[in-house]
Amino acid sequence: MILMDKLESLKDYIKELGKVAIAFSGGVDSTFLLKVCGDVLGENAVAITIVSPYIPRWEIEEAKELTGKLNLNHQFIEVSIPENIKYNPEDRCYLCKKQIFTLLKDKAKSLGIDYIIDGTNLDDTKDYRPGMKALKELEVKSPLLDLEFTKKDIRGYSKELNLETWSKPAYACLLTRLQVGEEITEEKLRKIEKSERYLFSLGLTGIRVRNHGDLARIEVQPQDREKLFNVDIMNKISEKLKEFGFKYVTLDMSGYKMGSLNKEK
After folding, report:
1. Residues 66, 26 contacting (CB under 8 angstroms)
2. Residue of 22, 241, 245, 253 with fewest CB within 10 Å of its CB?
3. pTM score, two decimals?
4. How far apart are CA 66 and CA 58, in angstroms?
């Protein structure tokens, strides 16, 4: 009953806004939010997705498929790598969010929409998220955070609503795979994207390929480490990632850690 009350509160929150543009990545949070917005507002809910070199192409395609299934208006904004984050500064996330959400607001305004909303939730406050400062400065609304939705809540509701994303692993933009101060290039981003896509094809989820120059440091979920303790599989992964552009390939013995490169600053 408590969970149902929370969902009803979200519907009331969205209904009050009247017309919204949802910053849509195709992930668990934004898909759930988009679904509820679509159910409540119909054609007055518009998804807007950023298309950029640091967002995997497959994620853009998945986002397109999702809005197609939900039968909602889906707009796109293409951006290049901003000059002020070219060398991956510590405040990269803030600078990037500031730019893209300014573009989102401008796009929404051109569509006659006053409110931009995003999928930030309560669990996001437990990690290093400098981009949240930019959202506040630009007055972006975060209904899931305001109503204290946790990731568990969102996955639970998503399952009830038959959203295929309910069990989708969390996925951050590719810039999080590069070290602070390292020059961002499309070549680096593409080899990381290809490497992670290949690892997904092996049945591994929630993985990261951290870029350390010529070396790829693979992080897998701790419970999945034993899947790689096989000589044939290790050889295949090594050969494939070298084919994508890395010279050395290594497995992080500790497994995946959220924001591990943040901890190296």
Report:
1. yes
2. 253
3. 0.90
4. 12
